[in-house]
């Protein structure tokens, strides 16, 4: 991991995150002295499950996965995050709420994050209390998304969840190509299954079915979506 360093005014990542979307450049720049940057290589831990630090992390470049480990050392992939997203915000808003419940792991070399300590953020919020209301709206949206994911696990079958997952990955990471939309998810088969919330065998069976129908094609750790409309339809069944 590279040594942390200060952030230049022109590169203030706060201005490119949903959590600070209502903040003016002048307001955001007041936090510059408190921001620190660090660079991680693939498979480096940005923070670890069980940690008790009170930092909030913002992803400036690269990709990060959140994982949870069980008592018998099984690992569950919870979510994937990319440019401009916030990581590990719960301890900074609930500093007495206990240890971190997941680990953040870099998925690419030269993954760049910046972080902010609890005390620095709250001192700043005392000057701009309206910003706290805007932040609550963003956090509420994240809670809604988590609730929807739980609902999907209960009420949707595996092919529907897989179709929805691929559409989500496509909207966030997709690259238009002549044949369709190429989605470089950078996941192993086991990780993709974890993200869908099923076994590798069941997800592979659904992927093969989608491929046979001509909706998608698999290409290493990428998927090419040929017919997004059919995936949308399948995700709603």
Describe this structure in words.
With 237 residues, the protein is an alpha+beta fold. Helix content is 38%, strand content 25%. It contains eight helices and twelve strands. It has helices spanning 25-29, 90-93, 118-127, 129-155, 158-173, 189-196, 200-212, 228-235; strands at residues 36-40, 45-47, 55-61, 63-69, 75-82, 86-87, 103-106, 111-117, 175-177, 180-184, 216-219, 222-225. Strand 4 and strand 5 form a beta hairpin. Helix 5 crosses helix 8 and helix 6 (189-196) packs across helix 7. The model has no long low-confidence stretch (mean pLDDT 89).
CA distance, first residue to last residue: 45 Å
Summarize the helix and strand pattern as letters. HEEEEEEHEEHHHEEHHEEH
- Can you tell me the residue ranges where pLDDT is under 50 for at least 5 consecutive residues? none
General form? globular
Mean pLDDT: 89
Radius of gyration: 19 Å
Main sheet record: 4 strands, antiparallel
Assess the beta-strand content as a share of residues.
15-25%
The level of helicity is 25-40%
Number of strands: 12
Helix and strand content put the structural class at alpha+beta
How would you write the strand order of the largest sheet?
1-8-3-6
Number of helices in the DSSP assignment: 8
């Amino acid at each position: 991991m590279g040594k942390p360093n200060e952030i230049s005014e022109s590169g203030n990542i706060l201005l490119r995150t949903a959590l600070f979307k209502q903040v003016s450049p002048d307001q955001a720049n007041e936090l510059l002295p408190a921001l620190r940057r660090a660079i991680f290589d693939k498979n480096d831990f940005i923070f670890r499950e069980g940690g008790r630090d009170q930092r909030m992390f913002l992803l400036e470049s690269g990709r990060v996965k959140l994982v949870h480990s069980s008592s018998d050392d099984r690992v569950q992939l919870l979510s994937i995050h990319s440019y401009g997203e916030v990581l590990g915000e719960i301890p900074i808003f609930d500093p007495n709420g206990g240890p971190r419940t997941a680990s953040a792991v870099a998925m690419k070399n030269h993954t760049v994050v910046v972080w902010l300590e609890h005390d620095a953020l709250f001192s700043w919020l005392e000057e701009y209390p309206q910003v706290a209301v805007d932040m609550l709206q963003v956090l509420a949206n994240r809670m809604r998304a988590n609730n929807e994911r739980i609902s999907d696990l209960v009420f949707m079958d595996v092919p529907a969840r897989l179709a929805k997952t691929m559409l989500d990955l496509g909207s966030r990471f997709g690259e238009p190509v002549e044949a369709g939309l190429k989605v470089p998810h950078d996941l192993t088969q086991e990780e993709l299954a974890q993200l869908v919330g099923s076994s590798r065998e069941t997800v592979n069976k659904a992927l093969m079915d989608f491929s046979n129908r001509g909706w998608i094609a698999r290409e290493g750790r990428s998927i090419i979506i040929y017919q997004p409309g059919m995936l949308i339809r399948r995700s709603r069944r």
